[in-house]
Amino acid sequence: MTAPDPQFEADCICRILAGEHQLFHDLIRPCERPIYFLLMSLLRNETEAEDAAQDTVIKVYLNLKSFRGDSQFRTWVLSIARNEGLGRLRKAGSRREDSLEADTDEQTGDYTPAILTSWREIPSQTLEREQLGVILRKAVEALPEIYRNVVLLRDIEEMDARETAEALGITEGAVKVRLHRARALLQRELAPHLKGFAPKKRGQGKGLFGWFKSMRLDD
Amino acid sequence: MRIDCRHVWDHISAYIDGEVDSSLRAEIDKHLETCEICSAVLDSTHNVIVLIADDRVFKLPTGFSQRLHARIDRELESASPS
Fold first, then answer.
1. B53 to chain A: closest CA residue
2. Mutation site, A140, A156, A194, A215, interface B, largest B CB count within 10 A
3. Exposure of A149 by Cβ count < 10 A (0-12 exposed, 13-18 middle, 19+ buried)?
4. Distance CA A80, CA A86 (A)
5. What is the ipTM for the molecules in this complex?
6. DSSP A2
7. CA–CA separation, B68 vs B60, rounded Å?
8. Residues of A in contact with B19 (CB under 8 A)
């Protein structure tokens, strides 16, 4: 994901408001993925999520003047996307929006990880096998909604905890708790399936985990 | 204080994100040196995070961007931001 560039955004917004409307294409481009995946997570339907994403972007354009710059532009955009998604759920008479707003972080659950005695890294080249992508997507889609939203913004769109909290209208503490539980659920669901994708040969360099471990020890 | 596996699992997400304080981090590192299970849990959790973040896993629908920018163009012709 492209990291936001506040200077570029501020400059773009000034110029758009001054009449260079075409610059809106460049301004919104880095936000397309998070807008869509947040709405997909809320609405669970590709067509509806795309339609809501388009409406969100138009609302962003029409209300650009009201962006005050006291949060990141992307955070502001995502809160508009979230309102769009919740509004659609409300209109459809869905009760899911209530459960989304409820503070369920106190709920206890079993977040014990899958216990493995060894783990061999699954290299990202393995993603060229479509089957692995399907397994990963299904696991994320099967997460409870409040966890899925956080994983999508934190781990998939790589937003920080503060920005995720602002975009979802929850506290940073809730983001951290939900992310921890989501990762534990994903590890438990995925680790047993992923073992089958591990390379068969041993001794092919230290790979990501060798790097990760050495970084961990060096810190 | 010697920490146990459950304690490590409770902090694994914060550990991966570099959000545990230095004394807890040192305890976890010490535990990981000798605990094969927690090392595997950490490595598999980290691997899952790396894999789901790959752009090839969650892709925008084909043509999403083109349709979005065509809609923006239609809007730009008819309205100005307020």
1. A156
2. A156
3. buried
4. 10
5. 0.89
6. P
7. 12
8. 176
- The pTM assigned to this predicted structure is 0.83
Two tokens, residue A66: 């009201």
Measured CA to CA in angstroms, residue A188 lies from A89, A90, A126, A127, A193 at distances of 30, 33, 20, 19, 10
Q: 């008819």: which residue's tokens? A: B78
Q: Which of A95, A178, A115 is nearest to A143 (CA)?
A: A178
Compute the distance between CA of residue A117 and CA of residue B23 in angstroms, rounded to an integer: 26
Between these two residues, A178 and A167, which has the higher pLDDT value?
A: A178
- How far apart are alpha carbons B28 and B22 in whole angstroms? 10
Question: What letter represents residue A165's amino acid?
Answer: A
Spatial contact of A43 and A52, defined as CB atoms under 8 Å apart: yes
Contact A57 B41 (CB under 8 A): no
Residues 6+ apart with CB under 8 A from A96: A89, A145
Written as one letter, the residue type at B40 is A
